[in-house]
Amino acid sequence: MTVLGTALRPAATKVMLLGSGELGKEVAIECQRLGIETIAVDRYPDAPAMQVAHRATSSICCMARACAP
C-alpha cells in the first residue's frame, strides 16, 4: 500500500494542478481528502481551485520554474 503522507509536511505527496477551473477544484478537494498537498496554477488569479488549494499561483513564469529540473 502506498503511503501518501500528511499535507504541508516535507514528506507529503504533492499534486500541481495546471489549470484550476471547476474540474480542478473537484480534483483538489478529493486530493485533500486523501491527505495530498495541492498546488493550483492558473493564469487567472481567482480560478476556482485556488479557493481550496493549499497553495496557489497565477503566474505562468512560476509554472516554468516549478517544472524545471
Automatic annotation (TrEMBL):
PurT/PurK-like preATP-grasp domain sequence ranges: 14-58
Keywords tagged on the record: ATP-binding, Ligase, Nucleotide-binding, Transferase
Pfam families: RS_preATP-grasp-like
EC number, as in UniProt: 2.1.2.-
Domain of life of the organism encoding this protein: Bacteria
GO molecular function term, any single one: ATP binding
Enzyme class: transferase
GO cellular component, one term: cytosol
PANTHER family: FORMATE-DEPENDENT PHOSPHORIBOSYLGLYCINAMIDE FORMYLTRANSFERASE
Name of the featured protein: Phosphoribosylglycinamide formyltransferase
Organism ancestry: Bacteria, Pseudomonadati, Pseudomonadota, Gammaproteobacteria, Enterobacterales
Gene: purT_1
